[in-house]
Amino acid sequence: GGCDGSGLLSEMWRLDLATLQWGPMPALVTARYRYAFCTVRGALVVLGGYIDVGEDDDESTPRVEILSGEAGDGVFTSLPPLSCGRIADAVAIAGEESTSAAGQVLLLGGFDEQGVALSTVHLVDLATGTCTPQPALSYVRGNLSAARLPDGRIVCAGGYPAEPSSEVLGPPGGGASNAAWTWTQLPAMNVWRHNCCGCVMSNGCFA
Question: How many helical (H) and strand (E) elements, i.e. helices and strands, does the chain have?
């Protein structure tokens, strides 16, 4: 996916870390950019983003696709669209469960169909497209970065317009083990950031 300056792309590529060589993958059903993605049960899932609607115009989409098969050698197929509507510039994190039919994804922040930044967090059932609201972010954030920590908590940082702030989703301090998780403010970054990426390193730090 993405765009090359002349149009939107549906082609996908992968990097073999053993040989450091790029190779082609199956193409997306719908060319798009600024989408959310993650792996769920070994399958690559792509959610939302912007698509071409003609006359040199792009708009966000609720469309979802999945690439299954050994080592991603299958084909992308369409899943039910997001019930929460069109979205772009969100972050997707695989849900920690094994009982749903097709897996679940947490979808954080992003921009809605009007280009308004969101604080919403939804748990997406990939089999149905149903988006169930979860505790909202403390700030609206589009183009944010987020990742799941080794202990299961989720850290979120940056994004527009809450650029230097960060927060973590986890159980309340001193609360019961089954207490609802909430977002807690973390120290702000020393530099304002959006359109950034984040990951969890082997030592458990979020970078």
Answer: 0, 18
Give the Cα separation of 46 and 133 in Å (integer): 19
Quick: pLDDT tens for 43-74. 999 999 999 988 778 999 999 999 987 655 78
| Cα–Cα dist 122/186, whole Å | 22
- The alpha carbon of 29 is separated from its chain's Cα centroid by a whole number of angstroms, namely 18
User: Residue 10 CB: number of other CB atoms within 10 A?
Assistant: 14
What is the dihedral sign for C-alpha 131, 133, 137, 141? positive
∠ CA 101-37-197, nearest 5°, is 145
- Does the pTM of the predicted model rise above 0.70? yes
Within 8 A by CB and 6+ apart from 173, the residues are none
Tokens describing residue 169: 């989703």
